[in-house]
Write a structure and sequence with these properties.
11 strands; 124 residues; seven-stranded mixed sheet; four-stranded antiparallel sheet; mainly beta
Length: 124
């Protein structure tokens, strides 16, 4: 079965950190770009980070620039999202997604696989 599975979400206090993981099963991510999206209740889905297939080129939404880091480890078939200096505005369900492309395409383009989503709550 081909799927992406996220882990690492939960409750964290403002100013804290979390690391999300996204692993692939049934296929390799070596030639895929990987993205993290999030969606908060009542808000549109937002792509927060993207990595090209080799992990050497990344881009971020302005809302998380300087606080979030996407890391792609092809040897582990896994991508991570390190989230620092979290605020309540980061509360959302986070999804990883992949495209069978070497590069990061536009966030509104179709993605080939999505994870099931994992919830992050930032609250005191």
């Amino acid at each position: 079965q081909l799927q992406l599975v996220e882990s690492g979400g939960g409750l964290v206090q403002p100013g804290g950190s979390l690391r999300l993981s996204c692993g692939a099963s049934g296929f390799r991510l070596d030639h895929n770009s990987m993205s993290w999206f999030r969606q908060a209740p009542g808000k549109e889905r937002e792509r927060v980070a993207c990595s090209n297939s080799r992990g050497g080129t990344t881009n971020y939404a302005d809302s998380v620039q300087g606080r979030f880091t996407i890391s792609k480890y092809n040897a582990k078939n896994t991508v991570y999202l390190q989230m620092n200096s979290l605020t309540p505005e980061d509360t959302a369900t986070y999804y990883c997604a992949t495209q069978f492309l070497y590069y990061c395409s536009g966030p509104d383009n179709p993605y080939d696989y999505w994870g099931q989503g994992i919830h992050v709550t930032v609250s005191s």
